[in-house]
Amino acid sequence: KNKIMKIKHRIIYGLLLCTLSLTVKAQQEYLPLDSVLARVAANPLLRTYDAQINAQNAYAGSARSLDAPKLSAGQYQTPYQLKPDGGSFMVTADQMFTNPAKLRAKENYMKSISRVTAEEKKYMNNQLNAQAKQYYFERAILEKKLALLDNTSGLLEYMLKASNIRLTYGKEKLDNIYKTKAELFQLDNSREEIKSEIKQKNILLNTLMNRDKGQDFMVDTTLVVRDYAATVSDTATLAAVRSDIRGIDRSIELQQLNAKVEYSKRKPDFGLQAGHMFSYGGMPNQYILMGSITIPIAPWSSKSYKANLKGNQYEIDQQRERKTSLLNQAEGELAGLKAAWTGKSRQLKNYRQNIIPALQNSYKTSLLAYEQNTGELLPVLESIKSLQTARMDALERLGEILSIQVAYEKENEMH
């Protein structure tokens, strides 16, 4: 009965552990990179651009509005010495009518302002996506490093058990065992450092996703490296895909529309005045009905829009030069990234195909010699340490390649 009860208790205990483990895993959310980028789109910084675009579109609704009418009332041609038949009481209304060409030019200009802001939003979204990708890949590399440390820890624990057994037979030195334990403790420090860095990346990603900063989640450690070394980049393609370049184009269009607004100031505006006079002393009532027209081409009034048109052209020239500068800078940046990608890829390939396999063979050889009592513990520890260092370096190269990939996709706005 006691044995049966013990077996039952072990089964129940095992089921509880499994249930607890599944609960913990279920509570830890899994977020692939696509899900992270989708949540970054809800960043408050991007929503500020939406609000600004809505405001600019709302302002554009007032583009065709006219000046407010003016009403006047009072005495008209009334003598200071009051006479029963002198003067009158007059009521007038004035309304200026802006030239329709001016209203159309102003409306087109105000409607185009939001297009510039829309491109600014796309540019900022690209910056945030690049940050999210960088943090995500760094987090995934840290997970791989943590798994590597666990693997190395398993190798050292095996060696510690083997050396303790040999110590009982007087075939191992005590200081070698202490060195093995020190290596294990050193791995604990490295593991804690990596865990701290993982928490930092989590906070940065949660901040970009506008979530609880301490919320933990799992990432996809299956990292896909894309080869962009053979791709061809030209200014026409960059001008089409880059939102900052398109933003400059929209700014140039805006300045051109602004020039049309200034040019439309050459056209006259019209006004209408209507008034009615209530005459005193039985005199007949009278009225006023007059039209007016502005003369903007007069030399003293045309200086303003002529100066504005000249300055506007300089603004357009400045934007075009800025566009040329950005395209030139982008081409140089992409060429540098391709060269860096090629170099880092060759290093990673050398690690994977040559360095790590050679160190693995070195470890196996030293371990075999130790197990056959023809070798010592220190060479095994050195080979384990060298193998871990090479694998860590390989992960560093992989992280650098992914950083280059993020920078390349950022330059080309590849989401």
Strand content: 5-15%
Could you give the order of strands across the largest sheet? 2-3-5-6
Radius of gyration: 39 Å
Tally the beta strands: 6
Spell out the helices and strands N to C.
Answer: HEHHEEHHEHHEEHH
Individual helix count = 9
For the terminal residues, how far apart are their CA atoms? 65 Å
| Biggest β-sheet strands, sense, barrel | 4 strands, antiparallel
Helix percentage range: over 70%
Which structural class matches the secondary elements?
alpha+beta
User: Which residue ranges are poorly predicted, with pLDDT under 50 across at least 5 consecutive positions?
Assistant: 1-11, 17-26
The chain-level mean pLDDT equals 89
Overall geometry comes to elongated
Describe the structure concisely for a colleague.
With 415 residues, the chain is α+β, with helices and mostly antiparallel strands. The chain has helices at 2-27, 33-40, 44-60, 100-168, 174-208, 235-241, 243-264, 299-371, 377-411; strands at residues 29-30, 70-76, 88-97, 217-218, 270-279, 286-293.
Walk me through this protein's architecture:
A 4-stranded antiparallel β-sheet has the order 2-3-5-6, with no helix packed on it. It has a two-stranded parallel ribbon with strand order 1-4. The chain has 415 residues and is of the alpha+beta class. Helix 3 (44-60) runs antiparallel to helix 4. The relative contact order is 0.12. The chain is elongated, with a radius of gyration of 39 Å. Strand 5 and strand 6 (286-293) form a beta hairpin. It is built from 9 helices and 6 strands.
